[in-house]
């Protein structure tokens, strides 16, 4: 991780939205190799829009997306996964009617002979999935489902993992476990960019953070500093 | 200590049911259609064996077409009202490949000298069947020809509409337009009167413990069974098939997994087209060819797919058999006139849907 290395992910000057009216304007974020970066901000700040634009579900009206030094602006999701990006949506993030194993093989859809090896590796990271390989994904509990969603996204060994509110709608115990999973994934060298409502928890495991408000960059800095910032504490940590 | 979040998890898994009694009642309600259909099925198989067997044969053809219909609905997101007419068009393509005949001026046919029937020995009967290898080849040609035809229709009509954000209703109505256009082509090329693949006498066979059936019907049943098995293997044992189910389940997540959903869509049309075309040819072998028959077929095929749970391939297959058996047994037993065949089928459909809104195999009820 030398200083001259290109960031794992760079999104620069992104303007985007669902209609003519942009939801985010001129937003920039970057993630270095091996880093966990969290974006926090109130509802409607445009966090999800930013993530969907980076991952090609929405077209950026301005700006560019660069993965590991290579420009990927405007690429559709199915091609971006081959460039090292992976995305876990907030809801509907597993194939409910498919078995756990099938979910993993779909996560590794573009793989050839390495499939079994990758499944073994992902199961090594999430051993609780191993006894459930033949079960339908929609029979899993909420926490198990979230784990499977992470496992599916890791099948292609991405450079950067994008997470849309991984702790949303989980019980407190499960929130704990999901964040420890994220930290473990990062421990294997995968960079993570996540957006979270649960700001305190997310920043606690992050290296850096961004605050988004009204569709624009508001603050950025090391996670520990953001946690101490008066603005952040007042606005997003409820203190 | 059960937190609110924990209860939410439990509730989500239990669906809308609250409390043990409601859950049990719901489960009984969902099981009821299975029990009733099962009892009726066994009873009709014993008491009305002949009609039951014919019902299974006709039903196996509905089943093949319904599997195609349900795949198109689930993956390509088209309620395909042109399905019956495409089925009949395929039967006509098979007819043309076999005989080389098209309607000429007046009542006479023009027969081009390129029908498979003119190949040496092509019409020599295989076993007790009423046809030779020529017709088998013609059916194969029709099945292969259905693939580019459906891909072209999708490319020209449905895909442009869907990519412009057209609602499912608009796409469905456009498929009704396609149905009328396809019927027009059949009327234009082959004329309005009915036709048959073969005029010869049909031999019957006796199977141990079963009523006599026409030998051709064994061919129909065997072909349908082989294709259903092939479709099952494709969907549940290959990576393409899994990708097809994944795309039906969650297209955005499929894209996020690196699946080219456009290509999956095209494969779906191809597979559905092949199955539907064979079903059309076999149906023509069982009864006859007529341009108007396509629309008549559409209703039981839709009923089959919905009964089984639209989007579910094995549901569509079982649904086809149920619809076939209900139609043949109620009419065959002489309880009501043949004109009410479809009415009875739809009454059963409505009753099943009332108990299980998602159909027999529907996942989202």
Can you lay out the helices and strands and say which pair or pack?
The complex is a heterodimer of chains A (239) and B (365).
Chain A: E1 9-16, E2 24-31, E3 36-40, H1 47-54, E4 62-67, E5 70-71, H2 77-80, E6 85-88, H3 100-107, H4 115-125, H5 142-154, E7 160-164, H6 172-187, E8 191-195, H7 199-205, E9 208-213, E10 216-222, H8 223-228, H9 230-236
Parallel strand pairs in A: 3-8, 3-9, 6-7, 7-8
Antiparallel strand pairs in A: 1-2, 1-4, 4-5, 9-10
Chain B: H1 4-14, H2 20-47, H3 49-76, H4 83-99, E1 101-103, E2 109-111, H5 133-163, H6 168-190, E3 204-205, E4 213-214, H7 215-237, H8 239-249, H9 251-256, H10 261-286, H11 293-308, H12 313-332, H13 341-355
Antiparallel strand pairs in B: 1-2, 3-4
Write a short abstract of this structure.
Chain A is an alpha/beta fold and 239 residues long. Helix content of chain A is 33%, strand content 23%. Chain B has 365 residues and is mostly helical.
CA-based gyration radius of chain A: 17 Å
- The chain-level structural class of chain B is mainly alpha
Helix proportion range of chain B: 55-70%
Shape of chain B: globular
Question: Biggest β-sheet of chain A: count, sense, barrel?
Answer: 6 strands, mixed
Report mean pLDDT of chain B, rounded to a whole number: 89
In what order do the strands lie side by side in the largest sheet of chain A?
6-7-8-3-9-10
The CATH superfamily of chain A appears as P-loop containing nucleotide triphosphate hydrolases
CATH architecture of chain A: 3-Layer(aba) Sandwich
What is the CATH T-level topology of chain B? ABC transporter involved in vitamin B12 uptake, BtuC
Between the first and last Cα atoms of chain B, what is the distance in angstroms?
31 Å
- The oligomeric state is heterodimer
Just name the CATH architecture of chain B: Orthogonal Bundle
How many helical stretches of chain A? 9
Mean pLDDT of chain A: 93
The CATH topology of chain A comes to Rossmann fold
């Amino acid at each position: 991780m030398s200083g001259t290395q290109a960031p794992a992910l760079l999104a620069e000057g992104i303007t985007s939205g669902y209609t003519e009216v942009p939801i985010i304007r001129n937003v920039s974020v970057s993630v270095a190799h091996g880093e966990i970066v969290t974006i926090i901000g109130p509802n409607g700040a445009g966090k999800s829009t930013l993530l969907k634009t980076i991952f090609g579900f929405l077209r950026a009206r301005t700006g560019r997306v660069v993965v590991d030094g290579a420009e990927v602006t405007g690429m559709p999701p199915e091609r971006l996964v081959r460039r090292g990006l992976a995305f876990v949506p907030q809801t509907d993030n597993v194939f409910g009617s498919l078995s756990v194993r099938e979910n993993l093989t779909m996560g590794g859809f573009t793989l050839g002979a390495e499939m079994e090896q990758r499944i073994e590796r992902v199961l090594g990271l999430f051993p609780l999935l191993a006894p459930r390989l033949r079960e339908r994904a929609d029979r899993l509990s909420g926490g198990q489902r979230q784990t499977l969603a992470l496992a599916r996204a890791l099948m292609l060994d991405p450079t950067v993992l994008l997470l849309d509110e991984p702790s949303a709608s989980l019980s407190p115990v499960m929130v704990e476990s999901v964040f420890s999973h994220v930290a473990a994934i990062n421990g294997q060298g995968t960079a993570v960019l996540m957006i979270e409502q649960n700001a305190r928890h997310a920043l606690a495991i992050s290296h850096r953070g961004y605050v988004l408000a009204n569709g624009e960059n508001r603050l950025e800095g090391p996670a520990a500093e953001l946690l101490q910032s008066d603005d952040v504490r007042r606005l997003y940590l409820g203190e | 200590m059960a937190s609110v979040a924990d209860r939410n998890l439990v509730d989500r898994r239990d669906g809308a049911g609250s409390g043990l009694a409601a859950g049990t009642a719901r489960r009984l309600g969902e099981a009821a259609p299975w029990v009733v259909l099962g009892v009726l099925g066994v009873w009709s198989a014993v008491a009305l064996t002949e009609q039951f067997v014919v019902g299974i044969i006709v039903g196996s053809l509905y089943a093949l077409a319904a599997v195609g219909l349900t795949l198109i609905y689930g993956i390509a997101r088209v309620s395909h009202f042109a399905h019956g007419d495409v089925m009949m068009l395929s039967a006509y393509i098979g007819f043309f490949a076999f005989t080389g005949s098209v309607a000429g001026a007046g009542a006479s046919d023009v027969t081009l000298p390129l029908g498979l029937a003119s190949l040496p020995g092509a019409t020599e009967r295989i076993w007790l069947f009423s046809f030779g290898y020529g017709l088998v080849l013609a059916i194969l040609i029709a099945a292969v020809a259905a693939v580019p035809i459906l891909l072209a229709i999708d490319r020209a009509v449905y895909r442009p509409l869907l990519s412009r954000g057209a609602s499912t209703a608009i796409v469905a109505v456009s498929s009704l337009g396609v149905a009328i256009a396809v019927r027009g082509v059949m009327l234009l090329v082959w004329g309005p009167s009915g036709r048959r693949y073969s005029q010869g006498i049909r031999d019957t066979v006796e199977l141990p413990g079963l009523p006599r059936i026409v030998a051709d019907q064994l061919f129909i049943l065997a072909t349908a069974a082989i294709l259903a098995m092939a479709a099952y293997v494709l969907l549940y044992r290959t990576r393409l098939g899994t990708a097809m189910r994944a795309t039906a389940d969650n297209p955005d997540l499929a894209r996020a997994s690196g699946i080219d959903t456009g290509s999956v869509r095209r494969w779906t049309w191809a597979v559905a087209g092949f199955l539907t075309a064979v079903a059309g040819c076999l149906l023509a072998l069982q009864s006859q060819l007529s341009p108007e028959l396509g629309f008549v077929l559409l209703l039981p095929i839709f009923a089959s797919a919905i009964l089984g749970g639209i989007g579910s391939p094995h549901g569509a297959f079982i649904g086809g058999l149920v619809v076939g058996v209900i139609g043949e047994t109620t009419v065959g037993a002489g309880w009501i006139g043949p004109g009410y065949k479809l009415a009875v089928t739809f009454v059963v459909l409505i009753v099943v849907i009332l108990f299980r809104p998602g159909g027999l195999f529907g996942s989202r009820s």
